[in-house]
Specification:
The chain is α/β, with parallel strands linked by helices. Helices cover 34% and strands 20% of the residues. α1 packs parallel to α9, α5 runs parallel beside α9 and α12 packs parallel to α13. It is globular. The protein binds zinc ion (ZN).
Length: 576
């Protein structure tokens, strides 16, 4: 992992590759559509051509390379030897890509290919070079975890994976090997061991094998190393640093494995459309991205879009757009979305641009409400990657509880043997209270650093989210238990307090406007002590000046989304 850190630092690009006010497209569109939305980035485009680049003038183009979706092109590259690159299960059988079972190429199903196999690696390397040489500004990688993305399917037991594991085992200490019950790493054959173990009792799956957790570490590290290799290759092909994004849905376990090879996350993220109400789950993904200092361009999942299409709910999508920008990230413009259900397979949703584009234009027209602002947090959560992988749902639930109470949170990510992310002194600086985690999930150095910090008598910690909720008051909150999410963002003596109307009615597919919404602000904690006026800025409405009286602002009418812009006492404040 040291090597990865070193390369990552050498290729670091400096400033984040996306601004908070950027409007990212997922797939290519026409010039008129880009303009309609105010597009600035194409985050998941194809291989560009001179014509498509001209169409996208002024839009930064990330060209996509897919590790499992491009089987047809892989087959055509190696028609006689394609089988050599396939992943193998414990019985030596190839494995179909579960969400591409409706796809075939020349009568061959879409098999999952192993990123340790020379054919697969050659194909992907050529695709990266081709994409960059065609004029892409950045690289996007879909299914970036390669072989390790299919761990849940019990792969891969190809010869390369088996022999590589011996090298991995050789790097372990004697104690670790003893713990795994492996006497001689040089001759260990995980395939034979796994088959024997499965045969030992009924109902056993290979993912339950005692050595499987070490196998996961090995496979995830290989994925990160390969992504770092592709990153370096892209830079060499371009003769300049090339920003790299990946479909790293951060609510899915292990998708942070290669974060050091990435400049942004361009990722599918579950929005729970079938619950027919706005979901707070994406906030956790947005905060995790923030914790590793990378921007996030989200889209909903294929099944979310399938639900939106079937039930015609663009109004719910509008809630997702507002939530993303209010959280400092961005939902990609939903002009053409991949839908997936097991019954229908792949299909597409082309939603009404007239409902979506005005929200993106609002962001572009008010970029100064977004750019440079950072999340204000009432509380910080220590999130060990190990604990998140074990139970992502528990962490989504913590985030949901905090969000529902408008207790704004940030994440301090603590790494493990898969994710290299030590807790730093900077992570722990400042007086913001911390919700602790299960200490056993922390690396010893992180546990020690945390202990030094939290032992100070004046430093407030909570054993769990429930106690934080019982003790802390949000610095920005809505009075009267109304369904409003309040998300404050700060920038050197100014605050943007985003108000999201959660009174969404699926029957009408719209939010019900709320009158006289009282928002209580702790101006000192928000860095705007002494402010007496603010501006309410809402999509589709002229800005309105409002008084702040005894820390309370009353918003006369809240539609989908309003932003209270609060400056210090000064020139701007007086002019409102
Ligand atoms: Zn393999």
């Amino acid at each position: 992992m040291t090597l990865i850190t070193g390369l990552g630092a050498a290729l670091a690009l400096g400033a984040p590759v996306l601004k908070r006010s950027d409007v990212a497209f997922m797939y290519q569109a026409s010039r008129d559509t880009y303009r309609q939305y105010g597009a600035t980035v194409l985050a998941w485009g194809g291989t560009p051509t001179p014509a498509t680049l001209a169409e996208a003038e002024g839009v930064r183009w990330f060209g996509s390379v897919g590790m499992v979706t491009e089987f047809a092109a892989y087959f055509d590259r190696f028609p006689d030897t394609y089988k050599e690159g396939l992943c193998r299960d414990v019985n030596g059988e190839p494995v179909k890509v579960p969400w591409l079972t409706d796809h075939q190429h020349k009568g061959v199903p879409y098999w999952w290919c192993c990123t340790r196999q020379p054919n697969t690696r050659t194909f992907l390397r050529e695709r990266v070079v081709q994409t960059i040489k065609a004029g892409a500004y950045g690289l996007h990688v879909d299914d970036h975890l390669g072989t390790s993305g299919g761990l849940w399917l019990g792969i891969c037991f190809c010869d390369r994976c088996i022999s590589g594991f011996r090298d991995h085992l050789r790097s372990l200490s004697k104690d670790d090997l003893a713990r795994l019950g492996i006497a001689d790493p040089g001759s260990y054959d995980f395939r034979s061991s796994a088959r024997e173990w499965i045969g030992g009792a009924a109902g056993r799956k290979v993912t339950g094998h005692p050595v499987w957790p070490e196998w996961e570490v090995y496979q995830c590290r290989a994925a990160a190393e390969f992504m770092m290799e592709l990153r370096k290759l892209a830079t060499e092909a371009a003769g300049r640093p090339v920003p790299v994004g990946a479909n790293a849905g951060l609510l899915w376990p292990r998708h942070l494995a290669d974060y050091q090879a990435l400049d942004l996350f361009t990722a599918e993220t579950d929005h729970h459309a079938s619950e027919r109400k706005p979901s707070d789950a994406p906030i956790l993904a947005y905060r995790i991205a923030e914790a590793v200092g990378r921007p996030y361009a989200s889209t909903a999942s294929g099944w979310d879009w399938a639900y939106i299409k079937e039930h015609n709910l663009p109004g719910l999508v509008r809630c997702w757009i507002a939530l993303s920008y209010a959280s400092g990230q961005r939902l990609m413009a939903p002009h053409h979305q991949w839908c997936y259900t097991t019954e229908k397979g792949t299909h597409w949703y082309d939603g009404p641009a007239e409902r979506f584009a005005p929200l993106y234009r609002f962001v572009r027209d008010n970029a100064d409400l977004f750019d440079g602002y950072e999340t204000y947090a009432d509380v910080r959560l220590i999130m060990p990657h190990r604990g998140f992988v074990r139970d992502p749902g528990a962490w989504i639930e913590k985030a949901r509880k905090l969000s529902a109470a408008n207790l704004s949170f940030s994440i301090i990510l603590a790494g493990d043997r898969i994710v290299s992310k030590p807790v730093s002194d900077a992570d722990l600086a400042g007086p913001t209270p911390i919700v602790m985690c299960d200490q056993d999930d922390l690396e010893p150095a992180d546990a020690a650093r945390l202990s030094v910090r939290t032992k100070r008598a004046s430093f407030k910690t909570f054993p769990n989210v429930e106690q934080a909720l019982a003790s802390l008051k949000p610095a920005a909150r809505c009075e009267g238990d109304r369904p409003v999410r309040v998300l404050a963002r700060l920038k050197g003596g100014a605050a943007s307090v985003h108000l999201l109307n959660y009174a969404y009615d699926a029957a009408r597919d719209d939010v019900t406007p709320m009158d006289d919404v009282a928002v209580t602000l702790d101006l000192a904690r928000l860095g705007v002590k002494g402010a007496t006026r603010c501006r309410l800025i809402s999509p589709g409405h002229a800005p309105v000046g409002l008084p702040i009286e005894r820390g309370i602002v009353t918003v006369p009418r809240l539609g989908l989304w309003g932003v209270l812009q609060i400056g210090r006492m000064g020139a701007t404040a007086r002019s409102w």
